[in-house]
Amino acid sequence: MSLNLKFIGLLIKLGKTASPTSSATPLTKEIEQRGIHLHGLGFKHLDALHLIAAECLKADAMLTTDDQLLRIASRHLNQLTIAVMNPVHFTTD
User: What's the distance, CA 54 to chain centroid?
Assistant: First the structure.
């Protein structure tokens, strides 16, 4: 199974498990494509899902202590719609 198919399967699985009464964002073709794009940039599947969720919520920033995620995000700043920051730096900026 290709990584893209695995990623889409994960998105669909998460979409099916969302509570019908929740305010979950429905899975759209744009969200699928965004996930594939982020994964292609080097983000792990779940990291890409977290980024997509933060983007859908129109967050200003996503905080993480994951050094690998921070490195990948810093390489692709121009392709992200939110800042990805270490919480230590977030509180001092």
Answer: 7
